[in-house]
Each structure stands twice: as C-alpha cells, then as structure tokens.
Write a structure and sequence with these properties.
Distance between the termini: 30 Å
Order of helices and strands: EEHHEEHEH
Number of helices: 4
Number of domains: 1
Structural class: alpha+beta
C-alpha cells in the first residue's frame, strides 16, 4: 500500500493506492479508525485516478495525528506542517 498526502484549505487529504498484493493486509489495522468516521471517505477511484483505492479527508487535528500514526510506514510523502500552511 502507498499513501500520498495533499494539503487543502479544510485540512489534509490522504489517498491510498494498491502498490502490491498486501493492500488488504496493510489496510486492516486502519479499518477501526475508518469505521469511527473521523473524516470523509471515498472508496474506489476518484476522477481519472484508476489506481486510487481510498481517499480520507479532509482531516486535521487529533484525528489526523491518529491516522498518520497508523499509516506512517506506507506514507510516501508528508504534507507540510499546519504551521507552514498558515
């Protein structure tokens, strides 16, 4: 699994991509967080991005910190800090 972060005015958006056959195994620890509805979710491709499996966000604050702690091994690029955005 590969996760890419982008910044938006409302918070950060995390896009999840299948990078190998272990996508389901890598996503499994994140499912309880996703089920708790801490952010908007889009499952499947978005626009013309056929490789995208899931989009989470916009998200910020404690919910974002929790998400990042769960996905850090798969995060390919980090967004700028909130202070850098202001």
């Amino acid at each position: 699994m590969r996760v890419v972060c982008t910044s938006a005015p409302e918070g950060r958006i995390y896009r999840f991509y299948r990078a190998s056959d272990d996508f389901t195994r890598a996503l499994k620890p994140i499912v309880p967080f996703l089920l708790a509805s801490h952010a908007d979710l889009i499952v499947g491709k978005e626009d013309d991005d056929s490789m995208q499996m899931l989009r989470v966000g916009p998200i910020q604050g404690e919910a974002e910190a929790m998400l990042v702690s769960l996905i850090v091994p798969n995060l390919t690029c980090r967004c700028a800090s909130a202070a850098a955005r202001d």
